[in-house]
Amino acid sequence: TSAVLELRNVTKTYRVKQGLFGKAKPLTAVNDVSLSLPRGEVLGLVGESGCGKSTLAKILLGLEAPSLGQVMVDGQEITAQDRLSLARRIQPIFQDPYSSLNPRKSIYDIVSLPLRVHGIGDKAHWDKEVRRILDIVGLPARVMNTYPSQMSGGQRQRVAIARALIMKPEIVICDEPTSALDVSVQSQILNLLGDLRSEFGLTYLFISHDLAVVEHLATRVAVMYLGRIVEESDVAGLFDDARHPYTQALLKSVLTPEPGLGVPDTQLGMAYPNPIDPPSGCQFHPRCPMAGAHCKSVAPRPVPTSHGHVECHLHDPDSPMYDPKVA
Ligand code: SF4
Ligand code: MG
């Protein structure tokens, strides 16, 4: 399968001021990430809040330019000038449908907006398309004349999905699309996204802090930590045979009685590091139960596994920490 969307060695650095009189320091939100999204697949991107996954989404949507590296669509590099055409092919669905839907606009205005912005068709066409797409996402046509405040959270997320799909995109970037919803509504929306994917041959990047949600939909999973992809795997390999100690900790937190609440710090020993002052060597070492002295000074490199790749000294045959029992 060919990659419809690809990141090559993408880095995004911001300059961030700490405190009123603080000096601006660089913050590397995305650190040399290479990812490919094959057509028709769902790549789950998992990590805790602050790991850089939303920045990655903005780069893919053309809302942010990478500091280094390339974004490729169908093997062609995407530049700033291509953003408008990119927007036709790549659409977002964001986390909180309430804040991403303009409360003063009717559902009709919200859903038809992408067509109007891109100058596609006339009023008759918009009417037809809004009816068609509302039906596809399971909403009655009469909601056209209502406002977001008159809808439930699940209905609002259906509106956000309708707005994304009205452009007939090939790729949908879903950034925590169900995190603001009740658990019962979450599964309805996940089922809808799954149905839409097979019906329209969509390709998804599905961003979540919750591995349980990702397992539902993803075909591949990339685990992100402090801006790096520390493990990537097909979904079965990740759930059966996770290699990175961080992925293993995330999986344990999925198995706790209250999934969906993110990663309890009890599993990982301490809070997420401040990305402005990341740990040396392997950036996971302060929280890693397997860490050795070597991990504090030397960053691991990506090494292949049977189902993807991982960045951890325990799995690198060239590392003094290589452990064939673990790897
Ligand atoms: Fe843990 Fe060391 Fe592996 Fe990093 S390289 S994940 S600190 S064992
Ligand atoms: Mg986020």
TrEMBL record:
Annotated compartments: Cell inner membrane
Bilayer topology term: Peripheral membrane protein
Alphabetical list of CDD domains matching this protein: ABC_NikE_OppD_transporters
Gene3D superfamilies registered for this protein in UniProt: P-loop containing nucleotide triphosphate hydrolases
InterPro entries from the UniProt entry: AAA+_ATPase, ABC_transp_ATP-bind, ABC_transporter-like_ATP-bd, ABC_transporter-like_CS, Oligopep_ABC_C, P-loop_NTPase
GO molecular function: ATP binding; ATP hydrolysis activity
Family indicated by similarity: Belongs to the ABC transporter superfamily.
Protein's UniProt name: Oligopeptide transport ATP-binding protein OppF
Species this chain originates from: Roseovarius halotolerans
